[in-house]
Design a protein that fits this description.
Distance between the termini of chain A: 26 Å
Number of strands of chain B: 5
CATH topology of the largest domain in chain A: TIM Barrel
CATH class of the largest domain in chain A: Alpha Beta
Largest interface: A-B, 46 and 43 residues
Strand content of chain A: 5-15%
Oligomer: heterodimer
Distance between the termini of chain B: 34 Å
Shape of chain B: globular
Radius of gyration of chain B: 15 Å
Helix content of chain A: 40-55%
CATH superfamily of chain B: Cobalamin-binding domain
CATH superfamily of the largest domain in chain A: Methylmalonyl-CoA mutase
Strand order of the largest sheet of chain A: 1-10-9-8-7
Helix content of chain B: 25-40%
Strand order of the largest sheet of chain B: 2-1-3-4-5
Number of helices of chain B: 5
Number of domains of chain B: 1
């Protein structure tokens, strides 16, 4: 993966040249450039290096890719503009998925939010919309994410902690009270029980009278990365994949403007993966979903345009810009050339970005504003469709209203003041960015081939391959921080003694009790027989392979069957996932 | 990765029973555990590996462990230390429960430490509940190793407090 110490990019390229391409029309030009470059190295550079050695013998990106001293047209010799870059809005979409990008419409500013009760989160949503946020993003608490009601013993101590608790349609009604669902776009970070939460959202839209074809948003619905990196799984892979593709089929029929999945690299990256691993594992998972859906009888061009992605943006600015571009090009190539999609919309990698939570420090927390700004800028220059910027206090607690405001303002400054949104793919054509884009695509392809040899993403995950690769990278990074090879300002360098903790958000400790009481009230008021009948119908369908589940889940939530009850039925039929051993 | 589980013969018995003797000293045994529903295990895994590299025997529980199950594992594995990790805000409830469950099983001498996204304001309450040290974001694995060594040595000498080691980050500094 990494080159020899001290070698520059042009030298690396020369080495690869024996097998290399390039008998192009510019060959003469490049040869003279090569000559000139050698001359520069021997004379100008050589003179300086003798007296002033460089800071490092070998410069490395955050992901361990070697970073060269200087990039020139020589590094792009194998490049073909039309083949590798093309025009925005056209294959392979390296320069962006829309022809005008942010000149037409800015990215969606979407802050992930949710804590405590549905009523509190509803107030935070309205606050964010008033501040100019353009889309909602719901954070659910952990019991909701793993299919337990707030009164389940497994939920003790966790209700409303990292997100909002949603037990039944009643909570969904409160969560979106006063927010017309046909006028906002809503992203829901929900995976194992995605079908249940989407059903509640649809049932609420019906009650509001919002037409279903106007519902815009995303359910994360990406179970594979839960096994790999995030841990919020419920069922084993096979029935989980059935739920995922069942949701694809439902959305293709009923919710034409809804993204039926957000294939996520963010959590893979946060768990310690490198940029290359993030791209490779995310797209390998994407391939697995497409193949599963095709096996289930769906046409790739029916659901393909509704697949969306979610990537992280870390602190190594140039590497991240290149990563987004590489991911976009690689997905387009995989979808067209490997998976046979013919609709150009199926080739587009449309993605949400979140800045890297793991880059934030608890020490000198205001410095995090700067980190987040750089990461957000990389996402914008990488062509993101929507963006969450982290708040500066998130290494300490859930963000306060003040810190969330600064995070949103960061995006607004980038969008309205900096000028970076006024031209399409402004870093395209940079020798370094283009070489790095090529490099990341090539390295990610190698990983995907390795995953194919293991039998595809599902098999690779079951064998623990992705997990081990990520753990290895995480440990390597930690050691670099500890021995000072990697600087984290305020943590292992430029530390200060006295630190002031900013005022932190306190989640109301009573939220669990109140949520349990509200749930008991819902259970008292609903039609118990109807609930039992709907759950029974769902159980029957779940037992029958290939039977659509989404319509039955919808029937159940309309009667106020709870999340825990529905997931309970599915747990009985499908069983629960047991990861293969610890460390 | 395989869990290093040394043969039970010769290592079972009350922790610290024989006392440390040069040469015949058994390796420090640590249970790294994820209580509650939190799925963030990068930190837990990195720490587990670093402790192992420092010569300790480490057992990692995996995700979604109840306090009772963690205490059971601590008993079965005869550990000196239980390291808890939580990034979901569940620490206030879950860490003290683990201490209680350990005590219920007579494991009063097991040293409990914790880490994760834990505001400084919660550290005192956790300590009062029996958590010996809290390692927040930015803590290094070497700090944790040093703390554990000192704490285990202190316990084996029948000293209640192991001193100030490992205190670096725990006040949120």
């Amino acid at each position: 993966m990494v080159g020899e110490a001290g070698r520059g990019p042009a030298e690396s390229r020369e080495k690869g040249r024996e097998k290399g391409p390039t008998e192009g029309r510019d060959k003469g030009k490049t040869d003279s450039l090569t000559e000139q470059r050698r001359k520069w190295e021997a004379e100008t550079l050589g003179r300086v290096l003798g007296r002033f050695p460089e800071r490092e013998e070998r410069f490395e990106s955050l992901s361990g890719l070697e970073v060269g001293r200087l990039y020139t047209p020589e590094d792009l010799e194998a490049h073909d503009y039309l083949r590798d870059l093309g025009f925005p809005g056209e294959f392979p979409f390296t320069r962006g998925v829309q022809p005008t990008m942010y000149r037409g419409r800015l990215w969606t500013m979407r802050q992930y939010a949710g804590f405590g009760s549905a009523a509190e989160t509803n107030r935070r949503f309205k606050y964010l919309l008033e501040q100019g946020q353009s889309g909602l993003s719901v954070a659910f608490d952990l019991p909701t994410q793993v299919g337990y009601d707030s009164d389940d013993p497994m939920a003790e101590g966790e209700v409303g902690r990292v997100g909002v608790a949603v037990d039944s349609l009643a909570d969904m009604e409160t969560l979106f009270d006063g927010i017309p669902l046909d006028e906002v776009s809503t992203s829901m970070t929900i995976n194992a029980p995605a079908a249940v939460l989407l059903a509640m959202y649809v049932a609420l839209a019906e009650r509001q009278g919002a037409p279903l074809d106007k519902l815009a948003g995303t359910v994360q619905n990406d179970i594979l990365k839960e096994y790999v990196a995030r841990g919020a799984y419920i069922f084993p892979p096979e029935p989980s994949m059935r739920l995922v593709t069942d949701l694809f089929a439902y959305c293709a029929r009923e919710l034409p403007a809804w993204n039926s999945i957000s294939i996520s690299g963010y959590h893979i990256r946060e768990a310690g993966a490198t940029a290359v691993q993030e791209v490779a594992f995310t797209l390998a998972n994407g391939v697995a979903y497409v193949e599963a859906a095709v096996r289930a009888g769906l046409d790739v061009d029916v659901f393909g345009p509704r697949l969306s992605f979610f990537l992280g943006s870390h602190i190594d600015f140039l590497e991240e810009v290149a990563k987004f571009r590489a991911a976009r090009r690689l997905w387009a190539r995989l979808m067209r050339d490997r998976l046979g999609a013919r609709d150009p919309r199926s080739w587009m990698l449309r993605f949400h970005t979140q800045t890297a939570g793991s880059s934030l420090t608890a020490q000198q927390p205001l410095n995090n504003v700067v980190r987040t700004t750089l990461e957000a800028l990389a996402a914008v220059l990488g062509g993101t469709q929507s963006l969450h910027t982290n708040s500066f206090d998130e290494a300490l607690a859930l963000p306060s209203e003040e810190s969330v405001m600064v995070a949103l303002r960061t995006q607004q400054i980038l969008a309205y003041e900096s000028g970076v949104a006024d031209s399409v793919d402004p870093l395209g054509g940079s020798y370094l960015i283009e070489s790095l884009t090529d490099r990341i695509e090539a390295e990610a392809r190698k990983y995907i081939e390795e995953i194919d040899r293991l039998g595809g993403a599902v098999a690779a995950i079951e064998k623990g391959f992705m997990q081990r690769e990520i753990e290895e990278s995480a440990y390597r990074y930690q050691r670099m921080v500890e021995d000072g090879r990697r600087t984290v300002v305020g943590v292992n360098k430029f530390t200060t003694r006295q630190e002031r903790t900013p005022p932190l958000l306190e989640v109301d400790p009573e939220v669990g009790r109140r949520q349990r009481e509200a749930l008991a009230e819902v259970k008292r008021r609903r039609d118990r027989r109807a609930v039992a009948a709907r759950l029974e119908a769902l159980r029957e369908a779940a037992r029958t392979p290939g039977e659509p589940l989404m319509p039955l889940i919808l029937d159940a939530v309309r009667e106020y069957a709870t999340l825990g009850e529905i997931c309970g039925v599915l747990r009985e039929v499908f069983g629960e996932y047991e990861p293969a051993g610890g460390l | 990765m395989s869990v290093p589980r040394p043969a039970p013969a010769g290592v079972k018995g009350a922790p610290g029973e024989a006392g440390p003797t040069p040469g015949g000293k058994r390796a420090i045994r640590v249970l790294v555990a994820k209580p509650g529903l939190d799925g963030h295990d990068r930190g837990a895994k990195v720490v587990a590996r670093a402790l192992r590299d420092a010569g300790m025997e480490v057992i990692y529980t995996g995700l979604r462990q109840t306090p009772a199950r963690i205490a059971e594992a601590a008993l079965d594995e005869d550990v000196d230390v239980v390291g808890l990790s939580s990034l979901s805000g569940g620490h206030r409830f879950l860490f003290p429960r683990v201490v209680e469950e350990l005590r219920k099983r007579g494991l009063d001498e097991v040293i409990v430490i914790g880490g994760g996204i834990i505001p400084a304001a919660d550290t005192q309450a956790l300590k009062a509940a029996g958590v010996r040290a809290v390692f927040g974001p930015g803590s290094t694995a070497s700090e944790i190793v040093e703390f554990i060594r000192a704490a285990v040595a202190g316990r084996d000498r029948d000293v209640v407090e192991p001193g100030d080691q490992g205190k670096g980050r725990e006040e949120g500094t």
